[in-house]
Amino acid sequence: MAGETSQVRRFDADFKKVPGTLSVTATHIAWVPKTQGAMDRQNQAMDRAINMLASKAGSKSISLKILFKDDIPAGGLLFVFSNATSKEEDRKSVQDILIPFVAVNKNPITNTSASAGGGSGSASASNDTSNVVTPSTSAAAAVMSANSRGKRKAEDDGTPTSTPGGGGGGVSTPISPAVRAQRKKEYKLRQKVLEKNPTLRMLHRELVIGKQITEEEFWEGREALIQAEEMAYAQKPGRQSRLLDDRFELDAGRKGKSTGGTGVGIKQAENGPVVLKLSKELTREIFEEFPVVQDAYAKYVPEISETEFWSRYFTSQLWERHRASVRKSAVDENARKKDDIFDQYLEEPDWNIQPRQSLPDDVERYLDLAATEEDHGESITVRDVTMQAGRERSALPLIRRFNDHSKKLLRAADANRGSGYGSGFDLYNEIDLEDLHGPAQETTIALDVQDSDEMADKQGHEDNAGVLTGKTDEEIQEIAAQSTKILSTFTPNFASICLPNPGYHTTDQDGNPVITDPNPAYKAFAEQRDAQAAAFHVVKDLHARANAEVAINTPFPEQLHEQMRSCHNAASEFLRQYWSAILPTANGIGTLGHSSLQAKEAKAIKMSGYLKSTENKVKAIVETSVILGFDPERVRKAMAPTVGAVKVALEREAKRIKRV
Amino acid sequence: MADLKTTLDAGGHCVLEMPSGTGKTVSLLSLIVSYMQFYPTKRKLIYCSRTVPEIEKALAELKRLMEYRAEMGANDGEFRGLGLTSRRNLCLHPEVSKEKKGKMVDSKCRDLTSAFACEKGRANPGSVPLCSYHEELNNYETGNLIPPGIYTIDDVKKYGKEKGVCPYFTIRRMLPFLDVVIYSFHYLLDPKVAEQVSAEMSKESIVVFDEAHNIDNVCIESLSIDLTRPVLDSAARSVNKISDRIAEMKETDSQKLEDEYKKLVEGLQEANDHREDEDMLVSPVLSKDMLDEAVPGNIRKAEHFIAFLKRFIEYLKTRMRVLHVVAETPQSFLAHLKEITYIEKRPLKFAAERLTSLVRTLELTNIDEHYSLQLVASFGTLVATYEKGFLLILEPYETEHATVPNPIFHFTCLDPSLAIAPVFERFSSVVITSGTISPLDMYPKILQFRPVTEQSYPMTLARNAFLPMVITRGSDQVPISSRFEVRNDPAVVRNFGSILIDMARTVPDGVVAFFPSYLYMESIVSAWYDMGILSEVWKHKLLFVETPDAMETSIALRNYREACNNGRGAVLLSVARGKVSEGIDFDHNYGRAVIMFGIPYQYTESRILKARLEFLRDNHRIRENDYLTFDAMRHAAQCVGRVLRGKTDWGLMVFADKRFARQDKRSKLPKWINAYITEAHSNLSTDVAISLAKKFIRQISQPFDHTQTGISLWTLEDIERRQLQDKEEAERAENELKTAMGKNSNRNGGDVDMEEDDFRMDDYDDGVDEQELAMMDLPDDM
Asked: What is the CATH number of domain B2-85+150-167+174-221+418-456?
């Protein structure tokens, strides 16, 4: 084993027949060729790994294929371990590291036969031609065991894989399995949250992996996120609502395969070999949908093998019936071979007008159609052909099955809640028209204002003042009316403002211009004209300046921007930590149960330490900008809010310390 | 309300269209009840609705109304209101009530409660099983079997359970003493039932047909009889049984037969002195004088009558062997009948009566066995009674392509006015109302009456609460239509399917889809399944489908509603004119969208329909196409109208057929729907429609102030202001008004004014108009 540090482990491995080194870190898996330039380096984030395929135990080459999300790189990466002495162990350790990631990333429920990817070599090759049954019980179990093994391994090793940056402390001390499971779960959840929020992930990477604050500190105050994730995670997918036997989806695109192409259960290639694909879900669904099959299963399975049971079922006429397709069953009813187990369960399709199963009699009166039918007396006329229900006999069992299926789904969803509906049936509720209610009392939401009593008191005093003090309501109304009147009759008279140009000269009575002195009216006019020009300039200036503000600046250089963002992110995180440490919380103690007052105190001091360095950081960025030839003022401005916030916090901290 | 009151005062009939879900039931009830209480001559209200759920709802409304009136200080004292429905829905007997079929319940009940059984049972306790619930009733005072008040059907059942009395007979016996009776159309229209239950109703009664858009079909159905070969066979069997029984009786108790003979000589009236508990068919609208006539001699003797029936059945059987379609008038049928079997018209007319009497004399039990015989007898009676407006059609094959004969002998009524005529004649005021009864002039025409008022009320909406869209093309621009030639075209089927998928994806909670016929729905559902369309739908919503069995469908419906309630969402596939389309509301989250796949035309190849169309054309000058479209559109409107209940409700209405885009189709929709179909929304392709729907849903889901005060909900002040305004105008016309209104209006003049501003009848909540009506009752308040 070539593991050198706890952080990075290296293994000898070939990639595309080029020898190289496979290195696995906490987050990435990378391969570097031994000879420079022989091959492109490969580097993938582990949280993208969705599947691993190992070569069979005992085969010549010990290889491991890792598949990634979205199939990028296409086909995954295939590594062949080349260290002659330890290649098997190498592979195992790589697998162990990867398992948690794969388990998380992979869709938890997959029934592909190739899913069993445990290191034990229980992998099944896809080119198996024998009649292989892989009930997913075993497949799922394999995944589960692989999971748990991965868990155990990761924890036993104390590799930082499990809690990167977790400080490593406490892992060596024995912890009860419950706590360990809890921690594991929490870790998983955190991982998920990070996956969903790229920004948070970046922050996490910067701060936690950059060892600025611990994992625990990072998550403190973010419990809500984890909780939400946990709830989302805890939501189990219900039963699939499709009918069992959907050849359509599964057969989509595969044309021409008609014989036995049931999609779900059994597959028959053209040349004979039959592959049965069956999962736990499928069997459960079949049992639920068709109790007779369960009945048969209970009766016969110890005697005949499970494989045989299912393959016979899927080739039986019963299955053909159960698939309930109108067209199919009509065609090859006779083509199906006889089966002594299942044929005894065959019964006439339920296609009479009266349903076979007896029905309860207690439908709410408002939905009781039978009551109406009876009330009208037996119809003595025959409806015309198109309106006779149930004429298309073959469609009836299908329709019944739809109703039944939907009902089952409904019940399945309701099973946990019990039947809440149906009992308290309100008579008046049915005839009530809500829009005809009188105007309801307005509902107001009381603001939760601190010292609301005081406020109310104050208001109470001020209330007397009203809008205009010392005026009665009538007076106020009058004022209002007057104002309204003025406003409504208001028409701007521009002529009174804008003076006409009277001409420079006054005219005498004959109309001849008097040249001696300028017209006094003209003077007024000139004044106005000048004022207008001045005003125009001012407005134009303002406009230009206003536009200058919104003009698009040259963007920050990428490098600088990155720095600024990082600095800002870190600062705000520190601020968050700081405030959460010193502010009193609802129950008086820290937000996390275990952080006592002392811890908080320590944290506050630590955070203030970090915060103090923020200013320097900003300065450094400004300097960088100078070096880059970028306007440092803009950087300073951009960072001003951050700096300001930090300053506030620091001032407060100084005060607080003084007080203490 | 003003219109309604005018009608009531004038003692005439009226047709009113009020948008669904605007409180029309309560508006009607509140006015009529006040009206009834105001006038000392107690006029009875007969409120007919269509389905049991609707009856129950109307009862609940009435109950609440009376509670409100009591609150407002009106003293209604001995006011009683009950709803009547079949025994099947009311029976409490531990064994009988287990029967699923109404016929079985009726017959079993009769065995336990009929007059002769009771006599025997009381004379000799234990010899004959009796119904304790029925017996218990005798301990109560006649006319006071149940305390005054309003009882819903369930209430009566509960009451019956507590006291151990039979709810059915409680209601039946209370009928003459009730102020309000609510039951289904059939009890008034179907002559077979009407005579029993509605005979005692006074002439002064006010009759309301609610949800009456389908009333003509009910009328026609009630006078039509179809005979099939199995029916005839079973009738022949029961004739044999009865003749055995007669022979037996002759030996043991010939006196009874003699008595009957004597009675029959005197006339049917005595023979059939009405017994409420005899549920054989009773006098299909025979005229009074005929009832008093003596029964023709040749069927007076029991053996003779049986022989007569045998001959008649034989004759019908021979007719059925014919393998080509025959259509003939009753006259020609009778002529042929006489030629072959020497059966005359007159005795045939009495066939049903005679059978009833015979059954009673023989004290037969399990009369449901003889149901077919009853059918045949009433067939005979009807054929012999009516000459005009009827047609006999023999169809040897069910469909055109069928090869195995399955003959049906239709005796079909072509003229709905025949069944409803007695109602119009007997009752002074008949109100016909529905949410979708456009075009209004059609109904008076086909029912042949002259309404005092015809009115269609618009809907006042504070916002556009529904969005009707006409989708004419799929996203691939292929026109969609349920026209017979293209309906099974895969492209059309797929496009219909994609509408469903897209709607299921877009619309929250419940989506209801209607098909034009069962046949089409059943074939399209399997086609969709095979195309994988339904599995797409399943991804978004649960799927429920209407089935032929009513109970099964009810349960599917309940599950559907549950799925809508718990947020899972569901799609219900159902048929226009089917069970679900009538009487089930899909309000609020139960129906956020309704899709009408195709136009619900009737099956135009049907000979009955053809005959009817011909009749309409000849007698009422209604063109075939007009009637067909009218009929289809009222059903379409009825279907889409199901989604809206109240103004806070909202929903999408999707008409998926290219023919909906045509003006002649749309113009037949009710005004309140048609007004909201804009030109832009009347010719959409699926994708555009879906994006419009999305926009609509987003917009409509915004919080909205639903206070209707001032818009459609008027406070007392609003009304008073309006009154003042109207009064000034009215003063001029008042004298004129007085003379028009007759002498009552002098006292009531103020009220008339008050009514007049209620022209927006649909807009009132019970609160407001009740206040006002309470005032009307107690004029001192004013």
From this structure: 3.40.50.300
Domain B466-699 architecture: 3-Layer(aba) Sandwich (3.40)
d(CA B72, CA B777): 11
Backbone angles phi, psi at B13, to 5 degrees: -110, 160
Contact B102 A384 (CB under 8 A): no
Q: What is the mean pLDDT of each run of 10 residues along chain A (660 residues)?
A: 54 77 76 72 73 69 74 72 74 74 59 37 37 39 40 39 38 63 81 81 78 75 79 69 52 36 45 62 75 81 78 74 55 56 71 67 68 62 69 76 82 57 50 55 54 52 52 81 83 65 59 59 80 89 77 76 84 83 58 60 81 83 83 83 87 79
Q: Do domains B2-85+150-167+174-221+418-456 and B466-699 have the same CATH topology?
A: yes
B522/A380 CB distance under 8 A:
no
Q: At what angle do helices B52-71 and B153-163 cross, to 10 degrees?
A: 80
Measured in angstroms, the CA of A444 and the nearest CA of chain B are apart by 14
Question: Alpha-carbon distance B653 to B511, whole Å?
Answer: 10
Q: Which among B221, B529, B555 has CB closest to A398?
A: B529
Which chain B positions have a beta carbon within 8 Å of A378's beta carbon? 102-103, 371
CA separation for the pair A421, A443 (Å, rounded): 28
Q: Which of B221, B399, B525 sits opposite A385 (nearest CB)?
A: B399
Could you name the CATH architecture of A1-110? Roll (2.30)
Cβ atoms of residues A121 and A94 within 8 Å: no
B520, B549, B606 member nearest A353 (Cβ)? B549
Residue A280: CB partners within 8 Å, gap ≥ 6? A135, A136, A137, A140
User: Whats the size of chain A, residue-wise?
Assistant: 660
Domain boundaries, chain B: 2-85+150-167+174-221+418-456, 86-149+168-173, 225-385, 466-699, 716-781
Contacts of B532 in chain A (CB under 8 A): 246, 248-249, 252
ipTM tops the 0.90 cut: no
CB–CB contact A434 B193 (8 Å):
no
**pTM of the full predicted structure?**
0.67
**Cα dihedral sign for B738, B742, B743, B748?**
negative
Best CA proximity match to A345, nearest among A393, A313, A323: A313
How far apart (Å, rounded) are the C-alpha atoms in residues A22 and A43? 10
Indicate the length of chain B as a whole number: 782
Chain A partners of B519 at a C-beta cutoff of 8 Å? 385-388, 391-392
